[in-house]
Amino acid sequence: MYRVCGLLIGFIVISCGLPASLMAQGNAFDLAAALAIAEPGATIAVPTGLYRGPIAIDKPVTLVGVDWPVIDGGGSGDVIRITAPDVTIRGFVLRNSGASLDHEHAGVTGLAARATIENNRLEDVLFGIYLKNAPGSIVRNNNVEAKDIDVGRRGDSIRLWYCEGSLVEGNTVRNGRDLIIWYANHSTIRNNLVEDSRYGLHFMSNDDLVIEANVLRRNSVGIYIMYGDGFVLRNNLLYDNRGASGYGIGLKDIDHLVAEGNRMVSNRVGMYVDVAPRANGTTVRLDQNLFAYNEIGMMLLPLVQHTLYTGNVFQENHEQIAISGGGQLVDNAWSEHGRGNYWSDYAGFDANGDEIGDLPYQAQSLFEDLLQIYPELRLYQLSPATQALDMAAKAFPIFQPQPKLVDEHPLMAPPKLAPVPGLPTTPTGANLAAAGLLVLLALLVLTQARTGHLWGHLGSARSTK
Amino acid sequence: MKQLTLLAIALFTTLAISGTAPAGTYAAPLPAVERSMLQGTLYAQPRPAFGLALPSTTDGDVHLRDLQGKVVLLFFGYTYCPDVCPTTLADIKQAFAKPGVNADEIAVLFVTVDPARDTIVRLTEFLGYFHEPSFIGVRGNDAQTAAFAYQYGAKFYREEGATGTDGYSMAHTTHLYLINRQSEWVMTVPWGTSPEQLALDLRYWLAR
Q1: What is the ipTM of this complex?
Q2: Is residue A158 part of a domain?
Q3: For residues A319, A323, A326 and A327, what is the CA-based torsion angle, rounded to 10 degrees?
Q4: Mutating which of A2, A3, A8, A27 best tests the B interface, going by the most B Cβ atoms within 10 A?
């Protein structure tokens, strides 16, 4: 009796928290049992431990993992399958789903409205989070890593299918296929990091999306938007996307798009535009975007029109603007209210000091025109031969090609753009140290040279050989 | 007339000394219970109480959602308990008898941690000793009870070789978990809290 009472007093002390480790000494936690007794709307705390999946959730509950419990799918089927609305999954490690693309095995498959999947780590899963017919859902702050298989055999890290009014934010995705959104009108996708995947963000047939502050790097394509009306594309970073397509941003058959503050840096093509806008009376507006150090800043189809470009920075792209298949751009505006864009290769001047170039900027290069017909000539890009060719074209106007575009009011300096997180930063300390070492070395060499010791040493070294 | 006056004075004096004013006529309202007067551990942020559906001594399963609007005291124990469980239930019953505590607005969920012995029949019989209709026995299987107990940080296990019936007893957490009318777990009341103090705690939450 005294022993039991002693235990009881001990419990008074320890039972104020959630003594997960002590659970192991007592009764094991059974997740299925907890789900069985939970009322709709209940919040179930799940202690740390390893749980065998798949877990089926058929009532509206909130599952909260305490100290990262692991649910292991055992390599078959979904790890968690949700068939009830208003389910929340938070704080779990979900791993080892099946690997059948036919059956679309996933870490989480959600088949009902208002699912909230947040703060989970998904590992070794074919599809990561796959929500079908789940409007009003939230996918937030998850970390998704796909199975270690060839990209063509992977599933999508996050896929929304008919999920109107959803929010996808703060997720980190690596080594997946796509983060893809189908038929999810009025949704917001923001603050996600996608890297080493196929399409960082892929949008198919959506209207009224806000896509902002995402970081897409080292993917085959950063963001690709196909079919839809009404997009705000804001402050995204597209960096080093250099796959077969290699677009930072790709647009196809969309209307009413505003792109502002996006950074397209070091991609194969900063932005690719194919029929946008597609309908009469609609527009695309590109404002204060940065196209820097891409092989091609923008690649456009010749029929791209009704697009306004203003305040954009075209910085040191190998080819600032390319027209796929050749030709000229018509019915586009390259300036607004007397302000155009900044072109790093602009060679004009500003006599009146109004920060607007006095001569128009013309994207005009014989070599670039030839590139559209003979793409293999890109091998010679940046070589003296290409410069000689363009100089010859200027010297003999009969060879001068028609300009691809004319910006009547080019900016003399790039506008200041708001900072965007995610770009690699220069290691200032290391640079300073390296510079210091170089200066020291130079001083040493100069001193030695002045006194003749260095050469003397070298000479003596030679003479002793 | 003089006799009547003397009688009235005598009656008034008697009432004043005894303090037994007719019920409902002269009863002064009880002072409100302040937060600082509570004995239990309060949570800064109320936690959603785990809503359960388990077999009970009522006609069917007990559902927490059906108890919304009542203050719920949740206790994990067992009927063969020689000390803590019966005394805790007795303390609750005494608290119910204190002024300002309306037992009709309170539910006590007694969740057995010994389902092997505590059948619904046994729970009904045990709780019947207290003649308190707001006491509800709840019984799940081992896994269900463990899962439920974990939601409140409660723990229990079987203690072999003890002197209890069938050669074992159950060690278990002794707290009372208090759930407010809005189905939020707001307070944990430690074992040993007096009926008077428990009544104060209950009055505080009954007023909210």
Answers
A1: 0.78
A2: no
A3: -120
A4: A27
